[in-house]
Amino acid sequence: MNGDLRQSFDNAPTVLLLAAGGSVRFGSDKRSFVLDSKKTLLQQSISQYKDIGLEVFVCLSGRRDDDFLASMLLRESVGCLRCSRAAEGMGGTLSEGVSAIGDVPGILVALADMPGLLSQTVLRILENADSERIVYPVFEGRRGHPVLFGRRYLSLLRELSGDAGASKLLRENVENCVPVPVVDPGVLLDVDTLGDIQGIERLLQGRSSTGEST
Fold first, then answer.
1. What is each CA distance from 28 to 21, 33, 98, 126, in whole angstroms?
2. What b/e sequence results for 165-195 when a residue is b if at least 16 CB atoms lie within 10 Å of its CB, and e otherwise?
3. H helices within the chain, ranges in order?
4. 97-121: buried (b, 16+ CB within 10 Å) or exposed (e) per residue?
5. Which of 42, 116, 128, 174 could tie 186 with a disulfide, CB 3.0–4.6 Å?
């Protein structure tokens, strides 16, 4: 999907793409793995949001190992946040990332190892955006990513720590959670192993052959 569709939405959220993990189970740096699309896993994940006009900030660790990725993001004009608290886990990374972005209409928390999302899925989440809401996709009864947090929750995201992530905010604010049913298995498919890459490639190839927009 081409063009800047951000203009179609008032108060568009900022995307915080979490990419500070260590790829332990993958055996190498999965973020740099080149897909059949000729994009790396990280580039493919970024494009899911940039291609519809959203502003993206990528959270990397402060390790020297991530310097190369930081340089790549700079060349491609993508925001890069070096998170000194990444070793704490997802909660620490989220807290630091949200604090660095500052006051925005909302934060769309996304994972850098989920390159199989449909553009329509992201747009459906945006359609349900509200400063008081937490919005997430649901596929076949299972909650997926990305998760949109309205402005009300930014201060709570900044208080996170450790490896728990933001799941507790969903549990504590059930009345303001908006599940959005989607027909997109990409909201559940993350990449931990080479076998997961094969599943993602099959999904993307199937969409390409049917003309379904990614």
1. 12, 9, 28, 34
2. bbeebbeebeebeeebebebbbbbbbbeeee
3. 41-50, 67-75, 90-101, 119-127, 154-158, 167-172, 194-210
4. bbbebeebbbbbbbbbbbbbbbbbb
5. 116
Cα distances (Å, whole numbers) of residue 163 to 24, 92, 167, 196: 15, 7, 10, 23
pTM: 0.91
DSSP 21-46: ---TTTSS-GGGPBPTTSSBHHHHHH
Distance between CA atoms of residues 54 and 85, nearest Å: 25
Say how far apart CA 91 and CA 29 lie, in whole Å: 21
Length of the chain: 214
- β-pairing, 142-143 vs 177-181, is unpaired
| CA 31 to the chain's CA centroid | 13
Q: What is the mean pLDDT of residues 160-183?
A: 92
Q: How confident is the model at residue 2 (pLDDT cuts 50, 70, 90)?
A: very low
Q: How much is the pLDDT for 186?
A: 95
